[in-house]
Amino acid sequence: FDEAHNIENNAASYFSDTLNKWMLHKYLNLLLRKKRGRSFGVIPLLLTSGAIRALSGELDLDRIEGRLLDVRDAMRVVDEQALALLAEQSSFRLIPAMKSVVQNLMEALRTLQATLLVLVETLGDLAKAVDTEKTGGDLPGLVDLQTLTRRLSSLAAACETFRNYEADTGRVIWVERQRMPSGEGFSHLIACPLDIAPLLRESIFKPYPTVVMTSATLTVGGKFDWWARRLGLGEGKRPPPGNGDVAAVAGARSDPRSASPSHRHIHAIAYIHTSACSLARPRARSPTWYTSSAM
Known about the structure:
Blueprint: H1 7-14, E1 17-19, H2 21-31, E2 33-35, E3 38-40, H3 42-47, H4 61-86, E4 91-93, H5 103-128, H6 132-135, H7 142-163, E5 171-179, E6 185-193, H8 197-205, E7 211-213, H9 225-231, E8 249-250, H10 261-272, E9 288-290
Parallel strand pairs: 7-9
Antiparallel strand pairs: 1-6, 2-3, 4-5, 5-6, 8-9
Helix pairs in contact: 2-4, 2-7, 4-5, 5-7
């Protein structure tokens, strides 16, 4: 990770749940859009491919289009209720004390979640109807359909997160007003984790034996401890920056400075070659690296 001093903010954004009408409309338009009486998108492409097995009445284009419209209508109501909640404010945090105030928004989110789940189920049935033996698994639009189905499913899960704002103590959840270049306002719902350390541990530091992080500004008072705790790294020995070959190592079970000169040299090469995607690792368990301008 280059510019690793930004990783906390970037990870918080990545692990946040977000929802707004333009995000949802983008996915729906990729599935189906109409222009001058013609249908475009992933769904028409699949339905006219000749690779779809006999469909039930639930999977014809008109019915699928109706379910897409149901989602659009439900999202419109969510946006209206969120903007009404904001009134003249730029943002509004959802907290238990505001339960009676946000009741209409919660009901709108429940309806949106329900319509999204119906649509996801329908899209899943359409994917199952593809004759993969006939196409050899290589059918234009099928991968796109599966990807969009997952994204819509994630939005349905986000609705659940927003609705459970009272019980979720690990996130801060709020609504904010954003504007298009035209000046049109729209609501943006966000649920951001308060602590990204457990998320980074499970998604990066546990699965990967070596993680390299570079930045000129990772230390506070000459130490990596504060930054390491924020990211959920172990409490292993971290030498202060500027100690010859090895600037700082965490996660290693022993101090690399006590190793043989050749071992230290391998650690130094590991850092030097990271920009070239070439990482020389010692036989010992690979450490997590931090770097600072003192190197």
